[in-house]
Amino acid sequence: MARHEVRGTSRRTTPVNRTVIRLVTALLGLAAFAAAAAAADGPASSATTNSLFAPGGRMYTTAVHARRTTVSLWRMGAKSRRAVVDGSLGFPVPTFDGTGEGITHDGRTLLLVSGSRYVTLDARSLAVRRDVRLHGQFSYDALSPTGRTLFLIQHPSPTSIHYYVRAYDLAHGRVLRQIIFDAREKGEGPMTGSPVTRATGPSGRWIYTLYVRSSGAMFVHALDSVDLHAFCVDLPRRVTTANVLHTKLELKPGRLAVMAGTKRLAAIDTKTLRLRR
How far apart are CA 31 and CA 25, in angstroms? Predict the structure, then answer.
């Protein structure tokens, strides 16, 4: 058989080429993000991860085999405990920056998800506490500091771009009737938008999530996970999806800053939950 030689260009990447590659990568990422936001205009409900770091040098992992999930607890790099749960489960990833969640602020409760199924475990023994299976279009949003309340995103229908924030009482096993919304706005209207990134206050009570709408407008959803209140803060027009790939929330005493790299795009007073000038 004849041997064919393929001659190619040098693998060396010049500074100009590297700049072009970075630009193309950023544009492709932004296009994918914008397409996802325009298509759903809501949370990425099915995203999960198989590893989660926790305070005290702990790490949790999941491995799925034959429709069963093995949950492992690691300490200092060594496996110290494991448990097996029926179903294919993982730790929730509520925002597009890929950050996994699933352990309460007090470190006592672990959460696994699969669609509209939510399984809570004791974070140390890995014993199952509650196995919640909901009917309807629900996805994970957040956990209260002690794991008493699980916050959910509920879409009225599979094709709806609108959604509501609901609360599930894990202590009594029921969805609360109230809808979590901004009382400063009229009515209990549904939300639209896709979650980009978030920051959580030092006590775990306040959870701030940056959202982007398909129009490019952005806002911060501030959730009081203890008193079950929420506030929406619309950001200035200059804060758009043009900055979304590099946008983060930076939380400091009395202030939540929306940052693009080292540049501050906007700031919110965490006491009044209004824009700071």
Answer: 10
Name the residue range of residue 62's domain.
Answer: 24-275
Q: What is the pLDDT of residues 96-111, one digit of tens each?
A: 999 999 999 999 999 9
Tens of pLDDT, residues 191-238: 889 999 999 999 999 999 999 988 888 999 999 999 999 999 999 987
Dump the DSSP string for 156-213.
SSTT-S-BEEEEEETTTTEEEEEEE-BTTSSTTPPB--EEEEEEE-TTS-EEEEEEE-
Residue 243: inside a domain, yes or no? yes
pTM: 0.82
Q: CATH code at 186?
A: 2.130.10
Residue 235: which residues within 8 A CB-CB, separation 6 or more? Answer: 217, 218, 219, 220, 258, 265, 266, 275
